[in-house]
């Protein structure tokens, strides 16, 4: 079976064999990428039209107990200037977000012990109380089942937890010994069981990644069937063990966005900041490959440069309003419209 036939099979059946995914990744060329892109955009438009959903991103803390080898806010990075937003600061970001028309707030941060179940539950309840009809997404790492359950009861709607890689041996090359691949997958399964709109994701071009590990990522997405999937190119950070590694490519990231859209036509798929970092039109190219979510930054300007997961991150110096207006214009130029909508997955 050639690449075109595998893309046709994906469009028809929404699944493929591991060997077929690996073949696609190993044999990507301009013709196959364009073929997949056209079919992915058609699938995206059948479900969501030309709508792009905006999520207001609030980076609440860059303090993290973990020591992931690729991450700029890893515990061992002594050059990282740490911060933690207070509850009033987070609520002020949400106020600004509502004024700008956001209906979803994403609270993202390192695994910071300060944000206990009690602190987070209180915060989520207050956001939901102040902003009727909004959605709250959390992206705060691995927690216990009890924790996820309490946060769901407090009103959290969605949870993003990137699996990073669906290959156990690969996972262990990217993370310290105290972190467990088994627990990461268990957390994702728990989130789904508890009724969250659950999101996973991985880095494209991560150190030690192979066509076979990427095939496992695609098979995992096919079988786990997440509501959201965040993928972006790996970009090295100067203060990590992977500082001298090459970044992932725009070409492969966009191709994989198209493949994921074909696997699950109704998935919520961000065009990430990392895409915009490796190419000036990266986010537009992500949308034109099948993505349908953007995440403008609502974090205070004073902390944005400190939340540096990788080198060269964009949008650290723009006011939130400027960032949103800029994105709206960029999307209009390629025929899409950012909508003031919670942007729930179409079932």
Notes on the protein architecture:
This protein has 347 residues and is of the alpha/beta class. Helices cover 44% and strands 12% of the residues. It is built from 14 helices and nine strands. The chain has helices spanning 3-13, 18-26, 30-48, 87-99, 117-130, 145-154, 168-174, 181-193, 211-224, 250-263, 273-278, 282-287, 301-304, 320-333; strands at 51-54, 56-61, 104-109, 135-139, 158-160, 197-204, 228-233, 293-294, 337-339. Strands 2-3-4-5-6-7 form a six-stranded parallel sheet. Helix 4 (87-99) links the parallel strand 2 and strand 3 (104-109). Helix 2 (18-26) packs across helix 9, helix 3 (30-48) crosses helix 10 (250-263) and helix 5 runs parallel beside helix 6 (145-154).
Produce the secondary structure layout.
Layout: H1 3-13, H2 18-26, H3 30-48, E1 51-54, E2 56-61, H4 87-99, E3 104-109, H5 117-130, E4 135-139, H6 145-154, E5 158-160, H7 168-174, H8 181-193, E6 197-204, H9 211-224, E7 228-233, H10 250-263, H11 273-278, H12 282-287, E8 293-294, H13 301-304, H14 320-333, E9 337-339
Parallel strand pairs: 1-8, 1-9, 2-3, 3-4, 4-5, 5-6, 6-7
